[in-house]
Recover the amino acids of this structure.
């Protein structure tokens, strides 16, 4: 009875507190972070029943990942890996402020999830789900996962679910050429495509403005919705030939990681309930804006807060 | 499809870090603590499907309580209180070491849960549950909750669930006389009675040794199991006329709060799966012993750890 | 021999560290916060002898409140409540940054202070005091406190003290209509009225600009001074028919809670020493500006710092 | 109207958190610590009106010391040193556990207090005080302070106060020979002498058991009370020729610093109220035992806790 | 001009603060930990010039490892790995207390060091070094490292250095059979063999008491010194046919990780300076005892502390 | 074989966490801070072999200073002071935000280093060094250090090293007149003079713009390079009669302490390797800009980061 099933890797994230450097800090904050579970968390908090599908090491570290996601109400449907080689993917994040850049060091190779096949996974939640969502990170992680992604997209489609896919190009994982080859093979199975304008240019060789990009992708592959995210310039959705635009809401630069996932979670929370595209876009944008004020990868928000951002009724201090 | 449904109040718990005094500390650790949710957490971690039934304020604080319990896998079935008077019960715990005592300051009067009626609560999980569990704290919290407790015991019994009840006398909430009057009225509806030897003497006027106490209570009220807990002296269960004893496993004094609840959770995790009383007792004792090495109110344990304590195979450091 | 006696509730304040959410944080910073004690602290640090009058639970938590205020040099004259129902009022503060609002959750109902009568309180310090100050929060907390407030204002007046009152409307405690009814009955006993421009409009049905508001209130009720605070637009004082204005000093948005109380403390610190209204206003504004750079509710400042803000001589780093 | 006036240096104390080493830790806990202020704090918390007399740098650091002592209710009567050479004495404490020793690094030379003369100090509280207390640390800190100590003892005696003096030999500050010369010159002005058995042997050339030591000192110098503290062996008081002994209460080794000061504070709290020597000894011993369970230098205790230790009625956990 | 060169892997170590569980903690303490660098640190602090040889990822994380070791004065001679696959090995340590065991989760597969060949490494320090030390962990990490270990032992021997080797069997890395095969091939190149009594039995099929084990190993492979460590039962050294025994010094269980490495570092610090075996043993034992009172993997000690442990002159608190 | 030898005092620095006040905080962050060691750290991290020369107390606190500097790769050549009067200089830093200023309280009088003579110091590294650097703080600390500074400048010059000197006027240590007298006597021995424009005016009576100042100083004393730093207005270097200017790179106000030292370290890292003055200036400016984004006194940077700032290629988040 899930409304939304997402599939992908979720990592432990290590960050030095405050603005300390990774090299210097003696304590790291430990968070849980994954593009697809971020989407599930945002969507769950905004009213959907969300399930996250994955493979985790059978260890306190794997249980930590599961527990954090569950605490947001997400159902965690995972294979527990008890092989001797099991490992939890991690990444190090050092938040800079200009002129110092932020630093991301992935340590996710050989993680348990990279060996997950479609048959391993407890995919019961796919039956009857409204939507299946994953991202371009997943097939980039291993050849096995590329196959699994394709298979799950197919199964989801067969069982009547919408399929949603965020390109999410990661240059640390593969080249644009590799990405294009794998991803475009998946496109025919995808209903909702999310792509950052920059990724569309770099990976998918699209050009022109956001609308041109969306129309080109739609022409070429045929989607129900193409959603082009444009950073601080907002977003554009192409649906049934009509283009809808959405500016960003004012938001801080404080906690940028996870902004895009929150956008998708907010969008799907409305779109899957049959709300108009324009409304879904505004929920996506408001969720993304709120995320940027919240530490960590996930949008720990409430429905009421999204409504206030959209309505412009947030009070700075109410007592 | 819950195996175990528990009902009661869960509080926020504020404790100064390390051994600092409440009066001096500038930061408090924030935990989530409730006798019945503690039982649910222990049981869930040991293999049951557990649901916790309650009423919480519709606020970040109430959501915090729900989130923490969910992180252990427990299903949280609550009414969200959005009345202007909604409040989250709290307590302050200062952990002393002799000659300084530990200090508990309850601040739980007027909490949202104290107004919960049986009809308010989302009791769907009771249908088909194997067991319903609550404690003597719940009816002590308000007249409304005394009624609700009686009604839920009845409903649980009617729908074929075992009913389990831990006397858990709290002298800060009521007098022994008040407690006895209310509790003994509930006893006919109860299948499994858990009572600390001291409470049995003080509240229920039982005397003699643990077995005598169990037999007396059984004679008087008729239970499927009477479980008498005896602190560091172990525990005794009376089942179908037969007495089973269980010594404690060696355990530190470090984190005593929640020991009894962990015992019950460990016991039920086996008893409800049809395991013999003696085995269930050993799981209760091992879970309780492990709890005493773990900060907070809850037994954040794994099945494997319980097995090792019982088998005496815990390695102090394995690498 | 107090110069200033203030009366009201002081709460424990729980806030997540940094910008974390209340729902997520595992530690809360614990501060001490109350409109009237905030005024006492600011005034004491700026040279007055200040006494804070209240009722506190006889517990480590109550002692914590007393100790924090004493550390600033304020005399703490309280009744210690040792009834079984004693409780310390608290509030939760989550500091947001746009688009996320800040969140205040009061948990102050049934606090010990709500039962304080004028006869309970150790009011010796009122004898010979120069000034008695309280706020509109106090009578809003309980019917008992409304009576107590009236009685203390009368006693203070009788013993020759100036009476000062900050309207401080709190929509979480009562409606504008309720507030107006209770407060305007107190006005005849008040010499110095402090009111936020917004509260004057919402609660006291005043309109026009700040000066018009001040003159209307003065005409209607007759005050020695009417002080209208206007947030980032500064403040206006009406004294003996003459209006004095004061712009704000540049200040961050970082720690807004307690700004208004610091203004009053700074103003009174000069006014009660016979300094001109214009000078008192500048001390109020400088104290308020400094407060906004300091964590917590209270203005932990030094006289020298206020002088430097007024003189524009603060050095960003002197060594 | 002080009951007890103490005089001496109070330092900032820097300690690494937990059991970390000074060399490694990146944060130090900051406490306030001084033999004489420790006595004042214990006595104030146990019912006396205590005043602490000293000289502090006029700086945030000096204000920190004053604030911490005030938070316990102690009156802080100090000269504020605004000379360019003003400095706050500090010490570093690393708490070891065997076989690693604890480490104390004093950094107290040239502190503001070392220049305090009797005429500098605001000694009004001495008028009408019941008792004046200082320790052998004070005259060891500088020649000026040795003179000041003598003068204050004399003034206190002249104004009718009892004079109390704890030998408190510190080998880091002077040699036994130096100490003996200075201290024995002060003895004629002292009514209550407190001395550790070990110091009596090392500094005062006393031998025999505690009673022999007390009698010898009394014979030689003539005191109203001689109090010999014996570490874990308890204490002995000689008063009007009669010896009273007191065993220690069971206590942890956790936080030993300040044990002796707490003993003196507890003893004086009763002795100055006219309670029998034996009772005063038991209050001293109980206060000292409680101190050892409390982080920092000071006995943050309540009267009730002392009573429970003496009565053996402390409950490990009451709820 | 190094006295001692060690070679091996050094990991980042993540531990929850205090006694929290890995699954629950939101912050991990970050330490630096490796058997061979632990030896280098202890030896350097006790007077040798120590160099640590390894391969580290060219990243803030790799620099963190280097910086921590350098802070103890150790020379860090490493190849900086800037390949895309570079990674820093880590491990998770959860410190339990009985009945809860401690938990070690290695995440060190594929670390940069596993690809280090003898020709990669900057081995200049080996020229003229007095001693080269590594452990059985190193060849267990990869086939490449097994070869490198053999080669470095040979080079060290050729250049006239003593070779020291600690068997350090890790069951998470290989089986006893695998270990035996690889290690015994290295033995002919080794002068000083260190082996835990348990490892000697499990891996090397030795039996009898410690002396019998030492003699058997010496007979079979011919060493200059065989050092058998026996946990809390002390240690035995066989040197030129003579057996020397050393009991342990009293020490806490608090921080056991790194005890064995500290023993070796303490032993070598004396042995390499030509001190008698018996004295070297006592330095080993004292260093090991001190380590157990110090958080982290490394012995952050001073020469004076070792002397005091051996002399029994540690003062619990000196001031 | 050092490229750069610096000489001066390094202090422990105590700061309250976040924006808390020194008076209120219960923990202080502990850093290591000194103008000359800051230069050494920046230069070492940017490719030079740097040595820091000084005198430290033989204590855990002195070892802490040495360890922190070593962790950056700097060689620490110090006399260890084991006299009873040994002390470690410290300073308190409270970071304000307007209108609250930052506060620096020095506690460095009588530090061990103030007694260091040229003959005490282990100056071997000066032989063959490329450059010797110190600042105007050093001779201001004591008469002994003024002599030592002069002597080391002379020795360095004699052995063929460039001498570099940063005026670094500290009004808390001496008056402009005192500074001028001492410093101008040192100028003949100096090759590279660094001076803040403001110090040039206040201390050296220079006027006109930066170039005029540089030319005047060059005319009067004859330097190889005069480097005038101008805060946010950039810097100017005069070399062989030619003036080079450098604007600042955009940087936050967050962590200003140490900006100037980082500039010098960056400049020297290139200048000493024979790079053109203009390039050296850009490295100075980029290093300074990065420093302002990094907590503490030291520039914990990597060469790559400096290159990216200069090239404008820093990515805000790369993954």
């Amino acid at each position: 009875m899930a409304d939304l099933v997402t599939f992908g890797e979720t990592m432990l994230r290590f960050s030095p507190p405050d603005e300390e450097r990774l090299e210097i800090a003696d304590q790291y904050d430990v968070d849980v972070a994954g593009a697809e579970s971020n989407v599930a968390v945002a969507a769950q908090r905004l009213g959907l029943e969300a399930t996250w599908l994955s493979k985790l090491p059978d260890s306190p570290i794997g249980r930590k990942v599961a527990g954090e996601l569950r605490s947001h109400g997400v159902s965690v449907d995972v294979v527990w890996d008890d092989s001797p080689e099991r490992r939890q993917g991690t990444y190090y994040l050092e938040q800079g402020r200009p002129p110092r850049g932020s630093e991301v060091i992935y340590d996710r190779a050989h993680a348990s999830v990279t060996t997950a096949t479609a048959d391993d996974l407890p995919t019961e939640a796919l039956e009857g789900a409204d939507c299946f969502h994953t991202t371009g990170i997943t097939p980039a992680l291993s050849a096995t996962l590329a196959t699994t992604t394709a298979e799950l997209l197919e199964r989801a489609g067969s069982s009547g679910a919408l399929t949603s896919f965020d390109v999410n190009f990661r240059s640390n994982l593969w080249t644009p050429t590799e990405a294009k080859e794998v991803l475009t093979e998946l496109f025919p199975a995808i209903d909702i495509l999310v792509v950052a304008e920059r990724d569309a240019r770099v990976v998918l060789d699209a050009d022109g403005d956001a609308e041109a990009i969306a129309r080109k992708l739609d022409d070429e592959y045929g989607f129900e919705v193409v959603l082009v995210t444009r950073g601080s310039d907002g977003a554009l959705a192409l649906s049934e030939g009509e283009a809808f635009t959405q500016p960003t809401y004012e938001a801080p630069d404080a906690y940028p990681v996870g902004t895009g996932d929150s956008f998708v979670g907010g969008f799907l929370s409305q779109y899957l309930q049959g709300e108009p595209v324009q409304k879904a876009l505004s929920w996506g944008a408001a969720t993304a804006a709120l995320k940027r004020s919240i530490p960590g990868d996930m949008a720990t928000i409430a429905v009421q807060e999204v409504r206030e951002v959209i309505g412009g009724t947030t009070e700075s201090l109410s007592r």
Remarks:
- Residues 198 and 245 of chain B are 17 Å apart (CA to CA).
